[in-house]
Design a protein that fits this description.
globular
């Protein structure tokens, strides 16, 4: 669906909606559909409550429900910092998914699955850069789904009332895996009427000449320059609800459709090619591929053995040397997805039946289906990918010219002799795809109510099922490639010697796009398909009581002691099914994994002093949870101790201490133990092999990256140091994941802060909070670079160098089919020493009344990260990656980030303008840190690409509330069309080949959005 089609559909939808009768019936319930006035006033009270430690009401009865505790008390204050994103905030951003909503929060480690070529389509949340497994995601206070299989985009943006983010440990309240914190999505429920939310946005960007375009032109590529309008994304949601029986029964439902257009890498001048820099401050080049549309041929015998050729791009049947030049070497990533093509449908509903204050039945269901793809060129792959000998070509092949036959066959040219040859070819044909189809359902139900004035209860559960089907593209059939290369002339027609359905392969001219040949080479292959299903069964029973109703109160307090009791049974299961084709390409085996846990918890709130001189409030809170996982013989205990002290109402001091012990998820346990093999890509894989430089087809070898001493620590003999035999075929060494035992991890978290709400400055609230998180025996996935980088940084520490397991001949290449015990680099999920996260959070809100002119609202959220990293082994120093990138500092965390939104609203609420300033602090290469623990030794300090300057992005949202039932929005994100920073070797930094960090920066340019909300 192209941009013009989206615009036409949006216009049609708008016309139909405007023609609909405005017959909205607004109920008295506070959660019914209200007239859409997208003003800051919608969120100012929420911001003030949140910053002062209170979460806003969502129950409809005027109570303040505190995030971070299951104890429900009016106007209670939380002892841990809370950040909220309101519906008004969300509308001002024009997002189409939850990921975009949360990426702007400094407390969230940004994740951009929609801008990540290798994504599986699922989007998850990471607090404090500590991993999604340590962030518990809730919807209306209950778990979204399994930790590993969940996809937060099951949640429709249009139905979010607000998002509460509790940072710091919350395990004793919500479960032992809430190590980094909790993200709770509060949905719009219990409303009546009909509402349509429609949003459409696209990128309006000017491609300018830059360092990448200059390098691309030198490599024979043609970067795109000038203005582009692309990346159209549509989001359309229909919501309807009704109340019956005098409001006792409320039912509501929604359906939501989302679509995103593809934006390929070559649509941006900053990603015209993958920028490669070999060695420190070395020359720049583009990543080149032998999989050229001109075809790549390398003789395997004779006087030209090993030489590399391509067919002349001008169409003549002439071999020319492989190298840079128009139509010669290929740009391997030009068609990769900068924005993935995506289609998603969500639907669901909510129901409540209030039979009495003592008994209410509730339920909800969310369903989604998402389909996204990764694109890859259609190719004939090198024989090495099959672990086989070279292909063979007959020397009287009619496609060979005299020159080509002479180079391949020598004196045998023109005969039926077959000779070995390496053939690689990128067809001039549509891309092949890896397709990820994600579906899921989440259903909740239960009963809740009040018992007298002192007690409440909630008995309910969650069932969640997430399924992912990965259909992977396959290598063409090796035998068929060989058959198609063995061709003779039969009555003037090239014909395969093998006969049958074989289609001759003209590998000796440029631009082959023969679809019949492609169908033959890829035909009759078993599908490479993996189906993975994750299931969650969760049953909870919670009870709260206010003992003050029975006189159990501190003599110096007015509120009594309150407590909450809870018990929970939770079962996680994940199973997978693999086709034979998938096992052939990727290895592995079907799995069926599960574990269950019984948990019980108690919480206590004890106001000790209230409304006394120098003690407006002194309160102590505590919590304890006992967990027993079936996968571990030991019981886990988590606890919290909290304190609040407000000498006066204007000033509150708060502190919270938490202990959490987290068992491996079923997927982590499987990843740790299961052995699988893959290939490590890149231009230089074995750091003991010589560096390789390709200058116009001339190969030169240089000094290895690692020292002789480091290589010796990996088991390499001095005689093989720098040997070309260590170079992995196609620059892809073998990586073995798994073979470990994953043990539980234990986290200790501290938060303490100050909340100020001065009565002499009406409308002002601000807070400062310090957080400290330490995770012992930390669980995590370490890729191969963890061992290679660590081995180099530590100058040969066995803890790291043992992860480089060489074969008897010193190489790091082994065929996966043989289940090798050597010749690979280790990777996978395992325990390491500990992880650390420390920093400060700053929040502020100020509402300034302007009388009849209107009002101004200011909302500020900033975070200062002081430590992000850990200690990799007992013999290594602490590694602090705050403000650094590269060398394994993958958190990409600037020291300082903030968002400041200023909103002007007219007094009648008809118009508001919201201006947002997003600031991202600088990042420095770890090589230049001066800290040897992260590779900052003097010999590694760079003079190029060593610093990313601070970045400021400005967003503007204009809202027109034309009538009580109609709101119209025009929004520009990244208003100044700021380009992202450019980095060489970006894949080593951000796992993206687009020369930047798309998770952190606005990578595609200015985003223009129009949106409307209509109620009737």
């Amino acid at each position: 669906m192209n941009l013009n089609t989206h615009v036409s559909l949006l216009a049609l939808a708008g016309g139909l909606l405007l023609a609909a009768p405005a017959t909205a019936q607004i109920a008295n319930d506070t959660n019914s559909i209200q007239p859409q006035t997208d003003t800051a006033a919608d969120s100012s009270s929420v911001k003030a409550a949140t910053i002062s430690g209170q979460a806003p009401d969502s129950s409809g009865d005027g109570e303040i429900v505190v995030t971070g505790t299951r104890i429900v008390r009016p106007n209670s204050t939380a002892a841990a910092p809370i950040t909220s994103v309101t519906a008004a905030d969300i509308r001002a951003q024009a997002p189409i998914n939850v990921e975009e909503v949360l990426n702007r929060l400094p407390q969230i480690s940004p994740d951009s699955q929609q801008n990540y070529q290798d994504s599986d389509g699922r989007q998850r949340i990471k607090l404090r850069s500590l991993g999604f497994e340590r962030t518990l995601v809730l919807v209306d206070g209950k778990r979204l789904g399994t930790q590993n299989g969940q996809d937060t985009n099951i949640i429709p943006v249009a139905l979010i009332e607000r998002v509460d983010v509790l940072t710091g440990g919350a395990s004793s309240v919500y479960g032992s895996d809430a190590v980094a914190g909790v993200v709770n999505f509060v949905m719009k429920q219990n409303f009546t009427g009909v509402r349509i939310d429609a949003n459409y946005n696209f990128y309006n960007h000017v491609n300018k000449s830059n360092l990448v375009t200059q390098t691309a032109q030198n490599s024979g590529f043609s970067p795109r320059l000038g203005q582009v309008n692309d990346g159209g994304r549509a989001d359309l949601a229909l919501t309807a609800g009704t109340s019956l029986f005098d409001g006792k029964l409320n039912m509501s439902g929604f359906v939501n459709y989302r679509h995103a257009d593809l934006v390929p890498y070559d649509a941006r001048s900053t990603s015209a090619c993958q920028l490669i820099q070999t060695g420190k401050d070395g020359p720049l080049s583009c990543s080149l591929s032998t999989y050229s549309v001109s075809g790549f041929v390398s003789p395997g015998s004779g006087t030209n053995a090993g030489r590399q050729f391509v067919n002349d791009p001008n169409g003549t049947r002439t071999f020319v040397p492989y190298g840079t030049g128009v139509g010669n070497a290929a740009n391997p990533y030009d068609g990769y997805s900068y924005q993935r093509q995506d289609n998603r449908v969500n639907a669901g509903g909510f129901v409540t039946l209030k039979l009495s204050p003592e008994f209410e039945v509730y339920g909800s269901a969310l369903w989604f289906r998402d389909k996204s793809i990764n694109r890859y060129p259609t190719r004939v792959f090198a024989a090495a990918n099959y672990g086989s000998d070279l292909f063979r070509v007959n020397c009287n092949n009619p496609f060979l010219s005299t020159q080509q036959a002479g180079i391949l066959c020598g004196t045998a040219a023109g005969t039926a002799t077959t000779v070995p040859v390496d053939v690689r070819y990128r067809f001039n044909a549509p891309f092949m795809t890896d397709t990820y189809t994600n579906t899921g359902i989440r259903a909740t139900g239960g009963v809740r109510g009040k018992v007298g004035d002192a007690w409440t209860y909630d008995i309910g559960g969650v069932f969640s099922r997430n399924q992912q089907i990965w259909d992977s593209s396959r290598l063409p059939n090796f035998d068929r490639v060989n058959n198609s290369l063995n061709v003779v002339n039969v009555n003037g027609t090239p014909t395969c010697v093998s006969g049958g359905a074989c289609v001759p392969f003209d590998a000796f001219s440029a631009g082959n796009g023969n679809q019949a040949l492609i169908n033959y080479l890829y035909g009759d292959l078993d599908p490479a398909r993996q189906k993975t299903v994750g299931l969650l069964y969760d049953v909870q029973a919670n009870m709260t009581g206010d003992l003050g109703r029975y006189g159990i109160t501190s003599p110096l307090a007015t509120d009594g002691v309150a407590f909450a009791l809870g018990t929970e049974f939770r079962k996680d299961r994940q199973f997978s099914e693999l086709t034979p084709g998938f096992i052939e390409d990727y290895g592995g085996a079907p799995s069926d994994l599960s574990q269950h846990v019984w948990e019980s918890n108690i919480e206590v709130q004890a106001p000790l002093i209230q409304d006394r001189p120098f003690a407006h409030l002194l309160q102590a809170n505590g919590g304890y949870r006992l967990s027993k996982y079936s996968s571990n013989p030991n019981k886990f205990t988590t606890w919290k101790i909290e304190g609040l002290y407000a000498p006066v109402a204007d000033l509150t001091l708060r502190a919270s201490f938490n202990k959490a012990q987290r068992a491996p998820t079923v997927v982590e346990a499987y990843q740790a133990s299961n052995i699988s093999f893959s290939r490590q890509g890149g231009s230089q894989n074995d750091f003991c092999a010589p560096t390789v430089t390709n200058t116009n087809g001339t190969i030169t070898y240089g000094t290895p990256i690692a020292s002789r001493e480091v290589c010796r620590a990996t088991g390499l003999s001095d005689a093989l140091y720098g040997s070309t035999t260590l170079l992995c075929p196609n620059d892809q060494c073998t990586v073995r994941s798994g073979g470990f035992t994953a043990d539980p991890e234990t986290a200790y978290t501290q938060t303490y802060g100050l909340v100020v709400k001065p009565r002499f400055i009406k409308g002002l609230v601000f807070s400062v909070d310090r957080y400290r998180i330490k995770i012992n025996n930390s669980l995590g996935y370490n890729d191969d670079s963890y061992y290679t980088d660590g081995c180099q940084r530590s100058n040969g520490d066995p803890f790291f160098c043992s992860g480089i397991v060489r074969a008897a001949n010193g190489t790091l290449y082994a065929a996966a089919s043989g289940n090798p015990t050597s010749g690979f680099i280790r990777a996978g999920t395992t325990n390491y020493y500990y992880s650390i996260a420390r920093g400060w959070d700053f929040q502020g809100s100020y509402a300034l009344g302007l009388g009849s002119v209107g009002r101004l609202d200011f909302d500020f959220n900033g975070s200062l990260t002081t430590f992000a990293g850990g200690q990799d082994s007992p013999v290594q120093p602490q590694r602090n990656c705050t403000g650094y990138f590269a060398n394994g500092c993958s958190q990409l965390l600037p020291k300082w980030t903030h968002g400041l939104r200023t909103t002007y609203s007219t007094s009648d609420g008809i118009f508001n303008a919201s201006f947002n300033w997003r600031y991202i602090g600088s990042l420095t290469s770890a090589n230049n840190s001066g800290d040897a623990a992260i590779g900052g030794t003097p010999d590694r300090a760079q003079t190029t690409f060593y610093r990313i300057a601070p970045a400021s992005y400005f967003d503007l949202a204009l809202t027109f509330n034309i009538a009580r039932q109609f709101a119209f929005r025009v929004i520009a994100n990244n208003l100044l069309d700021k380009n992202p920073p450019i980095l060489a070797n970006s894949y080593n930094i951000s796992l993206a080949r687009n020369n930047t960090i798309p998770q952190r920066y606005d990578a595609l340019g200015r985003q223009i959005a129009i949106g409307t909300t209509i109620t009737f």
